[in-house]
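User: Okay, second chain of the day. Same drill as before: sequence in, structure tokens out.
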Amino acid sequence: MESIFHERQEGSLCAQHCLNNLLQGEYFSPVELSSIAQQLDEEERMRMAEGGVSSEEYRTFLQQPSVNMDDSGFFSIQVISNALKVWGLELILFNSPEYQRLGIDPINEKSFICNYKEHWFTVRKLGKQWFNLNSLLMGPELISDTYLALFLAQLQQEGYSIFVVKGDLPDCEADQLLQMIRVQQMQRPKLIGEEAAQSRDQRLSRGDVDQAIEVNHPFDGTGMLDEDEENFQRALALSRQEIDMEDEEADLRRAIQLSMQGSRRSELSGSSPQNVPQPSHSSQTESLSSEELRRRRQAYFEKQQQQLQQQNQTSDLQDKATLSSSTPESGPACMHILSLGGDMSEEDMLQAAMNMSLESVRNHLNLEEEK
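Assistant: Same drill. Structure tokens below.
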């Protein structure tokens, strides 16, 4: 169908498209049709002037816009008819009583011009086949001989005015080619508006899909980094736990070291009874406090080892605490701490060690003041 001339709709120039599709070439332009319309307007004005230029009818006619064309590009049936007269063609109303009395089968005609509400289009026979050359279609539409009569009847029911083109149409390449071959059309051409609407819907649909994909699977690279970020957060949490454990161990070691230093100073001070008399129970408490701290340290390290081996040996710590509490050399304060050692947490153990360290320092200061 590439050889068939088919102008698509541009603005409101459907009359121009109708004529050119009928004649199968660019025979008329808007300027030429406007010239025909102006000529018709002048002829009508002259007829109205015959009744008197001062008459009310004439003045009213001059004030009215042209009925043969308008600014949108519409042209009347009179313009189309006068344009076809140049080629020796005549228009006859298809549903007029005069034509109907002739009883002519539509397939024996050569072409039709159809009009409905300022829209014009051509139905023409090329070769041995009929084609709908409506400018609102994306291309020519093949019409079978059996469907032609139904097609024209349907147009009449929809309110179309149908005109039969009488006369010899100018020769065209498409008519000559289709005299020798017949064509088949697998798919009906779409309307221009329908094609544009479908293209717009497809663009919107693709836009929605792309947006949904972007929301669920963004392509900014962050999706691929989710797993790495999760691993990083997990490693950071483990590192913080290790740092907290190291801080607790460091605090406990510092408390034990202070306690040991305080105990040594207390023992050195207590070794000179000539200068300062010392109560017997105070030296026993200090020496027992140092021994208890060593036991606490040993218990802490044993507990760390137990956690690494995933074994619960809390009962051993309680047994050690019980044995320590039964020692006859233990002072009252150490007896109380040791008896609670099995139930104390690491934080309680650290606090007890710090209290004993402060007690040792306080005793040492008291000894210095007594000197």
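The two ends are 126 Å apart (CA to CA).

User: Thanks, on to the next one.
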